[in-house]
Amino acid sequence: MEEAPQYPIIDSHIHLFPTSELDTLAWNTPTNPLYSQHSLSEYSSATGLPSSLEGFIFLETDRKHDLQSGVKDGSGWEMPLMEVDWLKRIALGTPKAGEGHTAEQKKLCLAIVPWAPVPSGAQAMERYVKEVRKHAEDSFEKIRGFRYLVQDKPKGVMVQDGFIEGLKWMGRNGFVFDLGVDLRSGGKWQLEEAVAMIEKAHDGVEEKEKVTIIINHLCKPDFSIYNPTDPSFIAWRTAIFTLSRCSNTYMKLSGCFSEMPDALKKGPIDEIVIALQPYLVILLATFGSFRIMFGSDWPVCTIGVEDAWKKWRHVVQRFCSLASLNQEEQIMIWSGTAIKAYGIKELI
């Protein structure tokens, strides 16, 4: 295979957590394959730290929280704020012993997207972000947005008044919202509700204050389905077309291994590219390369996949080649879109 051109890479979606805080993660148990430290030493080994890797954007890891007690007295925000402390140590290069990162590696941390109590509304967001600022100290400038995972929440959460108020507050204050929905496990209603959420969040808002929405993982479609006439594919395609027409929306080319059958994700790169092709064609036709960004979803991508980070990089390289993308388009996918969407000032 011909060597692919090496463009600067920003990994727009990674998670990091130290051994000492494993039990603060809402989803992690001792039987989980990720129940161990995943810090920058492990990330460096996984990527091989190619010279083209400029750095990463950290995404919150769904720490245990409680919205009601958070609003009442702040106690429900304790563990997400502990995560802000952890990222501060990474971003400022001040590790505790055994945390698996060094002062030199701080340059890799380009942006931070912590958890936030978005459903609790604008006043709660104001209070919470003040606490984030206290905990983050000099790393606060790297906090470019927030995420509240909705993929495992009941119907209606995304369009509740508090949630919409929270999103509008983020737009007014220059923060982006990372949107995590799940077509395969949650159902097509999640995508339909996401469209309604964006419309409500942008309704009556000046263009410059409309919250930017960065959609994770292609909305997690079922990659065992290759038939473009399948109802599941049609539902995904319809939603992607609609989401792409919303202003201030971007898509992460990430998280795909998690939605593949085992045989496919363990298979050769060309087979993976062929299986993804119907989806990637739609993605390119709707969002275009200037609104698509590369992300690995490390370490989640490693479950059941050997050398997952490098393998996903090769998949995206093959996609760019087969799509005959020019230099400018490829630069946007590999790093430019992430810089633009997250407003990474030092790289603009």
Order of helices and strands: EHEHHEHEHEHHEHEHHEHH
End-to-end Cα distance:
33 Å
The overall strand count is 8
The best one-word shape is globular
Largest sheet: 5 strands, parallel
Quaternary status of these chains?
single chain
Low-confidence stretches: none
Kindly name the structural category: alpha/beta
Please state how the strands of the largest beta sheet are arranged side by side. 4-5-6-7-8
The percentage helix is 40-55%
What is Rg?
A: 19 Å
Query: What is the number of helices?
Result: 12
What is the residue-averaged pLDDT? 96
Task: Quote the beta fraction.
Answer: 5-15%
What would a concise description of this structure say?
Helices cover about 40% and strands about 10% of the residues. It has about 350 residues and is an alpha/beta fold.
